[in-house]
Each structure stands twice: as C-alpha cells, then as structure tokens.
Predict the structure of Aspartate-semialdehyde dehydrogenase.
Amino acid sequence: MEQKTGFNVAVVGATGAVGQQMIKTLESRDFPISKLTLLSSKRSAGTKVTYKDTEITVEEATPESFKGIDIALFSAGGGVSKELAPHAVSHGAIVVDNTSAFRMDENVPLVVPEVNEEDLHKHNGIIANPNCSTIQMVVALQPLREKYGLSKVLVSTYQAVSGSGAAAVEELHSQTKAIINEESFEPAILPVKSDKKHYQIAFNAIPQIDVFTENGFTYEEMKMINETKKIMHDENLKVAATCVRIPVATGHSESVYFEVDAADVTASDVQSLLKAAPGVILQDDIQNQVYPMPADCVGQNDVFVGRIRKDLDAENGFHMWVVSDNLLKGAAWNSVQIAESLVKLGLVK
Amino acid sequence: MEQKTGFNVAVVGATGAVGQQMIKTLESRDFPISKLTLLSSKRSAGTKVTYKDTEITVEEATPESFKGIDIALFSAGGGVSKELAPHAVSHGAIVVDNTSAFRMDENVPLVVPEVNEEDLHKHNGIIANPNCSTIQMVVALQPLREKYGLSKVLVSTYQAVSGSGAAAVEELHSQTKAIINEESFEPAILPVKSDKKHYQIAFNAIPQIDVFTENGFTYEEMKMINETKKIMHDENLKVAATCVRIPVATGHSESVYFEVDAADVTASDVQSLLKAAPGVILQDDIQNQVYPMPADCVGQNDVFVGRIRKDLDAENGFHMWVVSDNLLKGAAWNSVQIAESLVKLGLVK
C-alpha cells in the first residue's frame, strides 16, 4: 500500500498547554494534513480553535473518535492515553503519546528523532514521546555519545512550571502578583497537584517534581534516568538526576556533568561537535557572555547548549548547560517531529 | 594580657545588605560589645542605624577609624578591604573580612567555625569569611568528611540575587513588577554589575555569577572549588561547581553530589550524621514532602539539608539538597560566629 500525501490527524488534549502547542506546531511545520480532528475531555468539548484560518470545534474524545485517523497525538494525561490509545490503534491510527503511560513498555519505542529515529520501525501502533527534561538532555548528549562513547551523566535541573500545565503557570503568575502586592495566597497546584502538600513557587525553588519513589528519587528523576537508558539503548549508562522546579514559566535548564570513554577530548572538540549537531544550537561564547537562558529559548524548537568546559579533576569529565522550550522540543515539537519521521520513513499507511 | 569581656567592634559597610545583617546578628546574639562603630563610604556616612535602642550615626571609614577597635567586620567590597584592613590590623584590630580580597592568601585563615575553627589560632590579624555558596556546602559536607572521608564533590547552585547586593534585589523586584504589568524594563545589574552585558533575572535563570576565568569556569565557581579545598585542608579533594542565579531574593540552594571513601555507607547513615551535626538542620522526610526550600530558610542561621539519597550507580556516591540564608550563614552570621570563636578561644587581646 502506498503512503498517502495528506493525513487525518487527531490531537487529544487539544485545549491543554501542550495540545495548543501541538496545533501551532502542526501549522508552522505545514504538516501534510487532510483533516485535523481536535479532541478533549467532555468538559472542554465545544471550544473553538483556529487552525490555518479555519475554525475547528473541539469534540469529546471517545473510542469511536479515531475512526479514519492516521496519526493521533495524545497529550491529555496518562489515564486518557491508557484508556483511548488502544482504541485509536485498533482503528488503524498510529499513536504518538506524550504522557508517561507507555514510555517504559518494552513494546513501545521511546523516540527522540535526533537520537533513535530508527526505533520507529519497531512500533506496534504506539510511540512514546519522552519526558521533557529527558529529551533536551539526550539531544545534547547523543553526538558526544556517538563520537566519544558516554559512560556517566549527572544532571541537576532548573525546570519551568509549565511542565505542570497551564494551571501551574497561572499559580506562578498569581502568587508573584500577591507577593509583589503584599497580599496573602494559598499554594494549591505545585509541586504536584495530587500530592498532599503544596508550596510557594514564586521566588522559591522546590526540589520535588512528580511524587517520590521508594529509592528516594522522584518519578521525574527516575524518568530522566530510565528513559535516557532506553532511548540510548544502554542499560549500563550511569545516570543520576536531581529535578528542581524554579519560578520560570517556560524553558527548562539543566546543569549536566558527563564523562566520555575516549581520552584527550577537549572542550573545544565538544563545542565543534555540538555546533554541527542536529537540533542543537551552540550558544557558548563566554568572552561575550553568550550562554543559553530560558527566557531566550521560548517559542523555539531547538536545544541550546553553552558553558561547555572540561572538569578540572576527571580526565574525561565535562560540564555543560542545556536549555530548551519544554513545551516544544520537550513535548509538542518532539511529537510532531516523530509524526514527520513516520511520514518520511513511509510508516503511515 | 587577659581577654576583655566587652569589645570595641566596628562594622565596615554598615549600610549594605550584609552589613545590616551583621548589626542585627550582633544584636540578636548579644555579642559582648563595649562600643559599636559603624563605618561606610563617604556617600552613606551620616545614616542613622539603631542598635539595641541606641541610635548610631554611620561614619566614613578612614585609616584612622580603627584606633581602639578590637574586632572589625568588613563587608564593603574587596577594594575597601584591601585598602583599609591593613590599617585596622596596624591599629591592633582583628579583621574578619567578608570579601574575596584575602581568602586565598596563605597567611590568612579562611574559616567556617563548624569546619576549621582551629585555623583561627594561625591568624595574622586578618581572617577571611568564605564565599556564601561555599560556606553552606562545607557545613553539610564536613561531618561526612570527618566520619567517612570525602573524595569528590559536584555541585550545581540555585543562588539568590541578594548575593549581588541590595540593588540586585531591587532589580528582581522591579523587573518582576514590570513583567507582571507588561511594561518594558532594562536590565542593569545582573549577572555582574561590572561586566559588559546585563540580562533579565525575573522568570529566568542566568548561568553566570561573577566574571569568567580562563578555564571556562566563573570566579564564583572557582571560589567554591578553591575555598572548599582550603577550608578542608585537602588539595586533592575533587570539587567542581556550576553556579546559577535564579529569581529568588534570599536563600541559596545547592544540588550536591558527593563520594565518600568508606564502603557500605547508607543514606540513613548520612541522615543520622547530619541530624546531629553542628549548624545543620535535617529536613528530610519525603513521605511528608519535607525538604529545604529557600523561602523557608530566610532569617535563620542554620544550614538545611534534605533529599539525601544514595546514587544508583556509584557505590560511594550520594545526592543531597542544601539550603541556607546567604546573607546569614553565608555572610553576616558566619562573620559574627568567627568573632564569637575568637572570643571563646581567647584570641582577642
């Protein structure tokens, strides 16, 4: 069967922070769409969204919504994905799922196109989009791993609140306003809406993203650890993460320490490699105070890397600073990019 | 000569962010003062400051200001310390200097009382107070080093703007207000007032504190590296730092990875040790979402530690999260604490 040239695409979670970015990205990339179906919970159904000058009414997502859909981009929470993705697949759609529902399922490829696009060939209907903080890190590490071998990664994150959804952005905004105006406020969303306690995020730093696991790491930290190993097909890669929420609306930053296998690699080698790397923009000119910052990355698809320097003790150790728009490369753009790869590889029948 | 019971104390930089905290701390600690002399630049001289219900007029600091002074606490910038500290010493005062002017001078002890109080005996008139981000880290690491041996430290910081002075706090405040009100603004202070470019700090993260050195690390990062080795008397200790400014007014946070020499140490061992450690308050109960945060540490002298967990790969590796008020333990309180130690050890003649 020959591949089509225009596809029926569904976005599930169309009214959410990431869903909105998916629609914008499909438009800005001019993705070959025959029909765009926008789906949401019952509560948000009826919302009108403009795509390429056409108004589309958001419909309630049901098992039957996926009849005739070629590609379904899911970003409506793990529960919705678990319930509806299998229905989408049974109707013949390929699902690109932005939730954590299927990421560690061994039958589901976990894909960042710059790193493991070839894993798409092994899909069984569902492809998982990794966690936002994982994606930007592996994009920056993959060229180094390919050329020099990678043995160890230690990352501390500086994550934006939009990773917790639009309500968390609103909480940062309203709390900031309250503090500036010396008014009282009651934290209700962050660090984790479903967890017991909520803390101030404005003018603060919260060392908890997602709930805690038994080993003392949070799920967010374990996502970075396990997903990195899966994407890179390297169970022996040493990875550790500390994930921290800071009062930034959009744009995750990461302080990454890594060790390569090869000897005699210089910081300049790393810079040259990343300058030419797909999906990476090198911003590393300390003489002119050029380095990535979250305020500068918003709205851009790339991963920005700077502050590259050799460790002063470990012969094969390096430090770098990695910044990206968590709603784009960390979510919407990586999902649409997977869809583009599926089309390019002739996998959408 | 017997030690006095009341001392003539001078605070140089009395109108600055740290100077103000020094005065408050001298008062709250009920430091044995006979006479308190408050000194500043010519510009700020004449300011009136209340100490224990008495109004004191701030005077211009000159070489002659130190006649009869027993202890002089300096926090008016490196230039002022370099110029006036030798005069203070020649008049018989012991100088506790909060600037970086003498920290790496081999004739000047660099002291955090919980770590190396005994170094005070070797002073030649000047004692240096370490950099704020160094102090809180070594307080948390020292008990571990003493009991288990310490071989390696990797730290990523989340530093408050008050480390750059009161003008930086005002910049964070006014920028935040401008962004909330959708007004324009012009960064003028951060990341480094004297450097060429200035960047937005509100809702952003800036991976530059102090200017850059030739090896790609900033001076702030090199301070953490070199000062930690000096305070711990261990040139072979492996230390690396990435220092980042975040939109928090007061309270530095640090994501610290460290490796101990001893085998079979557990996270619970580390917790027990830090629970009993001087100057440390353990806040580590993830079941109840208890961990340190900068918004909670403001106004307290202690170093708060949480998120202690064993690395999943390195047998002797651990992660922890260290938070402290950068103006207190990071500056004013450590300086006053050094003065208390000097008195306790009978070193103020």
Summary: Residues 144 and 269 of chain B are 10 Å apart (CA to CA). Chain B touches chain A through 59 residues (CB under 8 Å). Chain B has nine helices and 14 strands.
